[in-house]
Amino acid sequence: MAAISGGKTYHHGDLRNALICAAVDLATDGGPERVVLREAARRVGVSPTAAYRHFDGRGELLRTVKLHAQCRLADSMERAAAGEPGADDPALAAERRLVALCRGYVGFAVDEPGLYRAAFCVPRPAEAEESVVGRAAATEPEIRAFTLLREALEGLAKVGVPRPEGRTAAGAAAWSAVHGLSLLLLDGPLRRLPAQRRDDVVESTLAMVVSGTRGL
Amino acid sequence: MAAISGGKTYHHGDLRNALICAAVDLATDGGPERVVLREAARRVGVSPTAAYRHFDGRGELLRTVKLHAQCRLADSMERAAAGEPGADDPALAAERRLVALCRGYVGFAVDEPGLYRAAFCVPRPAEAEESVVGRAAATEPEIRAFTLLREALEGLAKVGVPRPEGRTAAGAAAWSAVHGLSLLLLDGPLRRLPAQRRDDVVESTLAMVVSGTRGL
DNA sequence: TGCCCGATGTTGACCACATGAACATTCCAG
DNA sequence: CTGGAATGTTCATGTGGTCAACATCGGGCA
């Protein structure tokens, strides 16, 4: 139960969640590298080591933030796609959906750079392995953002556009484009692009995606 | 003059360079976050603070490594393009060159993940501004990798493929695709892809780029 | 020739973090 | 009620970045 009373008790009551929120805040303005255990604890008003009762360490806290960020990204994509008007031509509708999803993707990256970077931050050294070494590498759940793109491309496929063999590859290609574009816009050389030109670049890239995945 | 003699003297003689090499080594296996001032100094056999005689701090050391990595990336692209056979049809030749450059790009990312990540690492907080605030933001030299892609696309344009207006945008789009692909392959969900499938994805993405930038 | 200053390194110190061990406080099930 | 499991706290250690004060070297000028 969430602590309603303001009175501080020895036991926080919902520390894990509170820490996650604080960590998400940190990531939101500052990206994954600013997700610092001590700072999160400080913000929640608790000693640094308290976090270890709920997380394996900074690594796990960060991984949690990462998951959260991935969800938010997918949400943004779905929101963008939901706002898209349908079309009589199913092929056109499918194409529009794909473009809308991509726009939602890049839009999220631009609006929430910190979270976006967190969504793709790379696990620290050696902490990459979570379970037993001998076991098959834990099959991580497919990121929803990718699922959305893939399904959109399958939607196009049903209408006969891309050939089935290349569908997954087409998804990866489309994802590559929006992901790369996002990062170039955030940290890369397209960073300082004025908003006008930025939109141009985004549109060009989306055009490349729709026309370029046609033949796959 | 490089210190030939093994005898350690109080003055190193070429510390700046030695530190850069050590830092590059660190980045090479471990990425930018492992570029640690103290460790670099340790490897060179010098006290940590000695580095401050040659660099503003870790930030500048890292920035130097970043530049180095960008050069290596461009080198890889040029090497790949150089190995490409010409073609009678100039349009075909131009297209081949573009694809070769892209292959060189992704190839470098896959072969040298640490360096590749270093080439695009984002400057730390607040250290982003190097000079006076009032001055126009220092116009960074265009990254050679991008120049190569842009020129390749201009090569295609001369042959009449993309329309001139979109040329820069086309370059950005192409770059986005290879950059995103590289990162997805390195850290992202395409990380554990078997080599076979990886090549498929690369080829699909390149196909998307060449066919998708045609209309820009 | 010899000395002095500036460039280059070194020591020591401080602060922020991650993390582990040992100890304290609660809370709840039996 | 009461004792152990949960949950926090304090203390301690190790790594890294960075600064100030001090040491050393090497070359140019009197």
Description:
2 copies of one chain form a homodimer. Chain A has a domain at 68-212: Orthogonal Bundle (Tetracycline Repressor, domain 2), CATH 1.10.357.10. Helix content of chain A is 60%, strand content 0%. Chain A has 8 helices and no strands. In chain A, helix 4 (90-111) crosses helix 5 (113-119), helix 4 packs parallel to helix 7 and helix 4 packs antiparallel against helix 8. The first copy, chain A, is elongated, with a radius of gyration of 20 Å. The termini of chain A are far apart. The relative contact order of chain A is 0.11. Chain A binds a DNA duplex (30 and 30 nucleotides) through helix 2.
Largest interface: A-B, 52 and 52 residues
**Overall radius of gyration of chain A:** 20 Å
- CATH top level of the domain at 68-212 in chain A is Mainly Alpha
Number of helices of chain A: 8
Task: Explain the layout of strands and helices.
2 copies of one chain form a homodimer.
Chain A: H1 15-28, H2 37-44, H3 58-82, H4 90-111, H5 113-119, H6 144-158, H7 167-186, H8 195-212
Helix pairs in contact in A: 1-2, 1-3, 1-5, 3-4, 3-5, 3-6, 4-5, 4-6, 4-7, 4-8, 6-7, 7-8
Chain A binds a DNA duplex (30 and 30 nucleotides) through helix 2.
